[in-house]
Amino acid sequence: MALNFAKGTTFMFLTGLGIAGNTFVLVSYIYVFRGSEKKPIHLILIHLAFTNILILFTKGTPRTIASFGFRNLLGDVGCKIVVYLERVARGLSICTTSLLTVVQAITISPRASRWRRLEPRSAWHLLPLLLFCWILNSLISMNLPFFIKNTNSVNTSEFSESDNYCYFIPENWIIRWIFTGLMVFRDAGFQGVMGGASGYMVFLLHKHHQHVLYLQTSKLLYRTPPEVKAAKSVFLLMLCFLFFYWADCFVSFCSFFSLLQDCVSGSAHEFLTIGYAIVSPFLLIHRDGYLVEKRKTLRNYPFQ
Questions:
Q1: 54-68: string of b/e by CB count within 10 Å (b at 16+)?
Q2: C-alpha distances in angstroms, 259 versus 60, 113, 254, 297?
Q3: Does residue 297 register a pLDDT over 90?
Q4: What's the domain count of the chain?
Q5: pLDDT single digits (tens) 155-193
Q6: Would the pLDDT of 302 be above 50?
Q7: Average pLDDT for residues 32-49, to the nearest whole number?
Q8: Rounded mean pLDDT of the chain?
Q9: CA nearest 227: which of 112, 107, 122, 106?
Q10: How far apart (Å, rounded) are the C-alpha atoms in residues 90 and 274?
């Protein structure tokens, strides 16, 4: 009981912190996007912040409520909706981060490069890609609502001391492996694209660094372009995503093969699931001074 209370308190704090950070990023970039400066990168960051909020609401909030012992709040329909949206949002997270990395790599590429031709002419040209991400992840997760029930509707004694709020009914192994394969293929594909784009960014940033060193030795003044600063922020964001993704995979792998079957590994898995959604907005706020400037502006200029 005391452990569940501590877990619930920690989840409540982290979830609230993450929602506050993502809401600030969301509102700030919406404010920027409403102005004359409508960059594609801003639209992607708006979508990423919204996706993070969706993850925290569908994963962190129910987990917090269940940890305090209130598992009756979600019925069968509520469980189906919450788990389905959480799975869709996690898929959107990897898709959006991958798209962010690719667009930023194209943005900082040389003007004579063939990759520069792929740069979106406006932010609205990214809407079909974002819509594709929603459709793709909605279809990949479409099997979940048929195999989820609230724990109170399942006559299993093992849930009496558990803080789980939803129960996965054993499904046909063929269906299970089909949808698991689709998720693995999606994750591998988008991470491959992410890795290629980030490698290209590292190459361009290295060239930029060599150029800066040359100008410094020549005693010439040089100011780092904002695109390069943004590329470094996106690269750190990508590393943050990969850290939480693979740490979560490692813990899940160990739990699946009964190497870590205790409350600590279960709690670690839950925290790693929402870790990226919590950390990423504060990484953006710390790296992007533009957000701090817009926060001051928002205080003096309300939305009309």
A1: bbbbbbbbbbbbbbe
A2: 25, 49, 5, 52
A3: no
A4: 1
A5: 554 444 444 667 777 767 788 888 889 999 999 999 999
A6: no
A7: 85
A8: 79
A9: 107
A10: 9
Give the integer Cα–Cα distance in Å for 88 and 207.
38
| Confidence bin at 211 (pLDDT 50/70/90) | low
Please report, for the domain that includes residue 199, its CATH number: 1.20.1070.10
Q: Pull the structure tokens for residue 157.
A: 């004694």
The total number of residues shown for the chain amounts to 304
Q: What is the pTM (predicted TM-score) of this model? A: 0.84
C-alpha to C-alpha distance for 203 and 179, rounded to whole angstroms: 36
Q: What is the DSSP string of 49-95?
A: HHHHHHHIIIIIHHHHHHHTT-GGGS-HHHHHHHHHHHHHHHHHHHH
Please answer whether residues 18 and 52 qualify as being in contact, where contact means their C-beta atoms are separated by less than 8 angstroms: yes
Which amino acid makes up residue 115? W
Q: Where are the alpha helices (DSSP H) in the chain?
A: 2-34, 40-55, 61-67, 76-107, 127-140, 173-217, 226-256, 263-287, 289-300
Give the tokens for residue 200: 């290209």
- State the residue range of the domain holding 150: 2-300
Rounded (10°) angle between helices 226-256 and 76-107: 140
Of 271, 203, 207, 242, which Cα lies nearest the Cα of 97? 242
Going by their DSSP bridges, the two strands 148-150 and 166-168 should be labelled as antiparallel
How many angstroms separate the Cα of 90 from the Cα of each of 47, 55, 213?
A: 13, 7, 41
Any idea what DSSP says for residue 169? Answer: P
Residue 261: band (very low, low, confident or very high) from pLDDT cuts 50, 70, 90: low
234, 101 Cβ separation under 8 angstroms: yes
- Higher pLDDT: 233 or 49? It is 49
